Amino acid sequence: MTSRIGSPDTQADLDVRACLDRMPPRSFVMVAGAGSGKTTSLIKAMAHLAETRGPALRRAGQQIACITYTEVAVGEISADVGASPLFHISTIHSFLWSVIRPFHSDIAAWVAIRIDEKIAERRAHYDKPRTQAKTKARLEQEIADLEADLAAISEVEKFVYGTGSSYAEGILGHDDILKLTPACVAAHPLLRQLVAKRFPYIFVDESQDTNPEVVEALRHIAGEHPGLCVGFFGDPMQKIYMSGVGTVPLNDGWAEITKPENFRCPTSVLGVINAIRAPGDGLEQVRGRTITVDGIEQPVAGTSNLFILPADAERSARLAAIRQWLAAETGDGLWLSDVREGDVRLLVLVHRMAANRLGFPNLYAALNDRAPMSLSEGLSDGTAWPLRPLVQHILPLVVAAQAGDRFTVISTLRSECPRLEPARLRGQATAPVLTALQQALDGLVGLLAAGSQATIRDVLTHVRDNELLRLDDRFAMHLVAEPVDDGSSGFENVQAYLACGVDELWAYRRYFTEESPFATHHGVKGAQFERVLVVIDDEEAGFRQYSYGKYLGYVPLSDKDEANLAAGEESVLDRTRRLFYVCCSRATKDLAVVAFVPDVAAARTAIVAQNLFPEAVIRGAEHLG
Ligand SMILES: Nc1ncnc2c1ncn2[C@@H]1O[C@H](COP(=O)(O)OP(=O)(O)OP(=O)(O)O)[C@@H](O)[C@H]1O
Question: What domains does the chain contain, in order, with CATH numbers?
């Protein structure tokens, strides 16, 4: 991606600058549609501050904070604004942790309350009349462990932030950080003062998917400290996670800034996304992507097509045929490319279609079918807790070991291996520890080697037994000889996941690291691609909160949906519309949508009636030859 700093100024950029240049600065919320250049405006605001306030901020030891959604986005923004200690660009978790980390006693006090809550939850479960004896025994054990954790907190010298919480060792997990920091901000005026002093400018990108507690904490600080300028950049129509705030409420005196243009999508795609958005909030974008030819700026027409095809066993072959058709129709052979540079993305709602094709159908089914939302949503981006240690540490560690990359191996073990913690090493000879770790690592590499018959359970058991990496507490009850279903949500899913072969894990990784053109509807937030093919397949999806069939009108609404609509509550139609809007608005050249449906004729009638795509571009199997 080319640097966005050089993009021409829009009125919104001038409005932002007016807010930043005021004394004291004015906080603002920028709300604008897809491709309107919100991230671009954020980057330009950072560059403007660096130019106008850089030296003063540096002298005062202050930083400009930018909070964004993924590590990929952190990298892209850093590349745009340039590496400088003036900028603190991070994900929400790292930002919150950097704020709270020095406050040891507040963290300890909060952790004690959190453990008390967990004990109370278990006592309540224990006291339920239908709780079985086996479950009671486990709950007793857990309560005893938590009480031991509670007693151990006073011994913790320093809390750290890791993937899974282990309170007695002083480790806090992702979910803890999201709760801990807003709670401490609400309780301690001094903390609010320190945040305002350290970061006089705090910008939040993709603010619609930021947790309401975090938004509230920032509004609270800004309300008390007029010198602090908070800027939110978001689009409520692009909220795709249940935990997101959606619309950010304005404090008194804050500016609301909008951008009417779309700079990303060609005209044919812009027409479609405006039509998708119309029943949502009615916002209609103008302009569209342009290119300059011989010094003259011209609109890019691009293409948009919608295929309605039978949901039969031929889906993969039909996808290939659509790509052939698009390549011929647009005269663009890259539609057939499977490599990253081809800039083709096939967007699937969930992974099943990709999973079947790429070789992880069981892993997919385990964490998706009848799974709690935290698992199924986390499957789309690798954040489901059972996947996290493997995706984040174990597989990268094995890849590094296989490639002889000692540096990555050592640094991963240094940060994640409990046996290398300074407290554990104290008074021990290091050499035998390292030898034992090397053996354990060799064993791990063997378990994950090509052709290995090992299961994910074997891998995690090996990691736990050899203390190679710290594992999430939640694995404990699963990694025993006879796991007991205590009725906790997702128990069966995790068991099925642990039984999957390691080959599926590698296939999932190929998918997850984008070594295939597949991506999920959720995973492409904030990104853009020249060629986008959105795959709609409710039969394969199994996601209850979305239904393209209901949204496009070829599956009837349930009584509950009707009741939600009548009550003005958020409905399956709202959620699906937002997701569809995000997907279709990623295209910078060609957009194609394929709906695999049970009854093509009925679906066609329903879809045509929605008026989202011009009728002339709604096609069927007859076009594919
Ligand atoms: N002022 C501008 N002039 C020309 N092109 C621009 C301008 N602002 C942004 N763009 C281009 O428009 C595209 C979309 O920009 P950007 O990613 O910042 O939008 P966004 O509003 O954050 O998108 P989304 O909400 O859909 O993720 C990029 O290719 C960017 O380079």
Answer: 4-100+188-259 (3.40.50.300), 104-179 (no CATH), 269-274+301-349+521-623 (no CATH), 361-513 (no CATH)
